[in-house]
Design goal:
- The chain is α/β, with parallel strands linked by helices and 309 residues long.
- Helix content is 29%, strand content 17%.
- It is built from nine helices and twelve strands.
- The strands form two sheets. A seven-stranded parallel beta sheet has the order 8-7-6-9-10-11-12. It has a five-stranded parallel beta sheet with strand order 2-1-3-4-5.
- Strand 9, helix 7 and strand 10 form a beta-alpha-beta unit.
- The protein is elongated and about 65 Å long.
- It starts with a strand and ends in a 14-residue tail after the last helix.
- The structure holds glyoxylic acid (GLV).
Amino acid sequence: MGILVLTEPAPADDYADAVRKMAGDIPVWTSGDHPEATRVEAILAWRLKPGILPAYPNLRVLSGIGAGVDGLLHVPDLPEHVVVTRVVDPAQAVEIAQYVVAGVLHFTRDIGEYVRQQAESRWRRLPVRGASRCRVGILGVGRVGQAIANAFLPLGYPVTGWSRSSRPASNIEVVSGAGALLGFLACTDILVCALPLTQETHGLLNRARLAVLPQGAIVVNVGRGGHLVEADLRELLDSGHLGGAVLDVFANEPPPRDNWVWQHQKVLATPHIASSPARQLVAEQCVDALVRARRGLAQPNAVDRALGY
Ligand code: GLV
């Protein structure tokens, strides 16, 4: 009985090697090994298609390779008894926060514009958009949202958070619930999406909500592409209502070459690199989840399937 690594498009062989280092005498396979389906007790994956899981009758654990497990929870044939786990990596939250600060400064300190000016050997000073005049609003105040707040606070940015359900954060004021969202957006100059993707948050950042942001606001998405209606964002960037967007995640990854995000002057687009959990930690937590399942122990990284995180 062992672990099947199905992490594609992330490199399955690399993940399998990392898991083998932690797995002792537990066999670890990739799909190319064609293990007997009855021997598969755990699967490590990023995204799954319907039709895969029912082939493994003795599956106990489905471990994700990321903090978000939306790519696993969406399959309709996920058996009820299977424990789904995500990765918890404190360093990942800090790296995401670094990315968000870099992306925001790209716009508020006009770094993109200065790169263009440098290409033309042009010396032109632009007014600084002061931190105290940029209210940062973070959607999602879990580990990642709180790390993002911790990165902005010492730089002088006012920071507040919004959570879907009532959830306090140790470092910032948080408003919660659908009823508080529009008021929150109306007071947010820098909107950072750090939510898990669930049925409730899918398409949350649509035209109606983005239009409530103040003129010149900047949108940063480090959640999932599914949170944002990209066509609505484009409309509001083009109309001049929004000042810029920092996008690390997309509805389709990678976005097609002719997708507007690649060329848009007001978009900083990156290939889902804000941060991934360390592979060694992914492997360690996957093996730990299987060992715990075998012994009937509590699963500290199990997700609540009803909540989606
Ligand atoms: C990255 O997107 C993750 O879910 O860890």
